[in-house]
Amino acid sequence: MAELCRYAEGTGADSLWAVDHLYWPHPIGEALTTLTVAALATTRPTVGTCVLQLPLRQAAAVAKQATALQLLSGGRFVLGLGVGSHEEEYERVGVDFRRRGHLMDQGVARLREAWAPGEDAGYVQQPEAPPVPVWFGGASAAARRRAAALGDGWIPLFIAPDEYAPAVAALRHETAQGGREPGAVEPGVVVFVCVGDDDAAARGAAWLSELYRVPTKAFRRHLVAGSADACAAALRRYGEAGARHIVVMVAGSPAVDHFGQLRASFVRDEERILTGAPA
Fold this sequence. Notes:
Layout: H1 2-11, E1 15-18, H2 31-41, E2 46-49, E3 52-53, H3 59-72, E4 77-82, H4 87-93, H5 100-115, E5 134-137, H6 141-150, E6 153-155, H7 161-177, E7 186-195, H8 200-212, E8 223-226, H9 228-240, E9 245-250, H10 255-275
Parallel strand pairs: 1-2, 2-4, 3-4, 4-5, 5-6, 6-7, 7-8, 7-9
Helix pairs in contact: 1-2, 1-10, 2-3, 3-5, 6-7, 9-10
């Protein structure tokens, strides 16, 4: 894992993210433990959860883990939170899936309480760490409103570029309605990408179908696939629509090699812009 993270950093990754599942059909590392390895193996990238299912965990313990990771990473950690969508996982943990939204709000309040200075200075979470940014996943209106009210960032999945711009406008409006600066919440997005030849779309959809155990048609609208240049152009549409952060989930192996090709395409375009060279 450390070697993989160093390889990704050397390839140009600006951030490294861990998915959170306590129960899953495939082998999966525990998110915060994995990110500890990532933080200690690298020096530059942001490390974060995308996203941690807070309703499945004890909030005070997550608060302590988050501050520890913020210290170990030198202030590079982002706590991405979400409610998840897999009812069977909630059943295995013994948490009511129908109350996941309410439990999320309760959990965030308890995170804030844990991080706030206590009245009894002898019984608080120490050592102190830099503030932990809290980002929220989820493309639903409820998830977006939660980010506007409570978050530092919003990173939805399963949202098309033409849907993203009005969603960002709604996010800013809802943030202002809550008495915050309209730009207080960083807009981001998570995008599935498969770099390759003409069959990249089919291969990427099959890879995701196996991972999530759902039909391939679920990913047709939300998978960016094709040559590195074509994928980079598709991702730029999110940037033009207002995304400040684009989290790439590579739908294929070896993932870092796919990412490296995508990154190289962005670098070439930046050089063309700087030098005025024709596209």
